[in-house]
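Translate sequence into structure tokens.
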Amino acid sequence: MSNAPVFDIDTAAFHKDPYPFLQRMRATCPIAYVPALDAVLITKRDDVFTLEKKIDVFSSDQPDGLMTKLMGQNMMRKDGEAHQIERKAIFPTLSPKTVQTIWEAQFKAATQDVLNTLTPLKTADLVKDFAMPVSGEALKAMTGLTQMTWQEMDRVSQGMIDGCANYTGDPEVEARCHDCTASIDDHITDCISKGIEDSDMSLIAVQCRAGL
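Result follows.
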């Protein structure tokens, strides 16, 4: 049990809008134990920046954490050399040079396609009609999951985010997360089975070349 100050929340209200709760926590007890989540929340940026480096206390290696249980241990849940090996492997995809020489043109083309679909419309929702498809297409390109629709990319991304935040143990949220990770696995398998070109700089491609 943590010796941090206790801060109680209504989980339904917190899920709907966490910001009023977080504002009160930052003002009164920026590091607090929240019984409803069975977790200690650290709510100030400077504290997080300092404490996350103390991996002997705040290790990213969390075998019982929701992320590891739901989708396996990835680089976000590894420390030190284990983290650096995977970080180094994916750097070719995310380097500024690759963004400039490969992804920028694809991002611009995808954005223009979305804008072209919006041109005839009298009104549009900035998030649903523009930001979601643009970001979805960008993720498709960089991950290598180009055979996935942007709608499915949005669905599986949100499903995994919800699953990792499912501290109340909602079985429906967990089931959706498992369905989303299964969809991603199927798309990855399909992508690899079709072969990866030497010029492919996607995350799937560079990780395959690195033997991950």
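Note: DSSP finds ten helices and two strands in the chain.
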